Amino acid sequence: MDDRAPSPAILIILGLVILGGLWIWENRPHWLPRINWRNRQPFGQRLYVGLITVGAGKLADEGFVEIGARCFNGTGKSIYVHRISGRVLATESKGGSSHELGPLPPPSLLEKPHYENVAPYKEFSVTLEQRIPKEIADKILSEGERVGFDFGEFDILVCAHGGRGKARLPLWGAVVLNKAPSLFSVSRVSIARVEPARLSISASAGQKR
């Protein structure tokens, strides 16, 4: 028998020490950090945006649209909308190509109570008031015109309570607002960007004025 091999008693004691350490760690005081072994996905990849709408009902009289994002908090943590930054870029589509109309004024975040505390695994919505210059508003209100809103340089930042996570909501790359006789249709647009996190996939949705 090899004298260098550990005896069975030592192996049993070592196993008991490891199991005891795991039990103590799992039942440790609440003030010590806990590790969720089942969900190691980065914080920002567990935030989802399922729909973006553009309400143009007040555009003609009051000069603004409401941009809404329907989101889901899959982080497993209570979160809040921290702040917004940047600007939305207006574009115009003609003949299969698009060109920039220029950055819009900074939008305003419409304050809602639930922004301060979104429970884990719950849906929530974020609504922006976006002022539109008259020359761009006239294009949106003209039948057949296609005006887009590009969110590439605009951020909605979300944080976890307790400072355990911060990320940008994964907004769609852009949407296009198209005026038809009785409604505005809102379509999602694919935009290839340098940053992989800002790539989007084509989809569409309709919305009545």
Protein model, in words:
This protein is mainly beta. The protein has one domain. It has 3 helices and 13 strands; from the N terminus they run H-E-H-E-E-E-E-E-E-H-E-E-E-E-E-E. The strands form 3 sheets. The chain has a 6-stranded antiparallel sheet with strand order 5-4-8-11-12-13, covered by helices on one side. A 4-stranded antiparallel sheet has the order 1-2-7-6. It has a 3-stranded antiparallel sheet with strand order 3-9-10, with no helix packed on it. The protein is elongated and about 85 Å long. It starts with 7 loop residues before the first helix and ends with a strand. The relative contact order is 0.17. The C terminus is likely disordered.
Using brief descriptors, characterize the structure shown.
single chain, 209 residues, mainly beta, 6-stranded antiparallel sheet, 3 helices, 40% strand, elongated, disordered C terminus
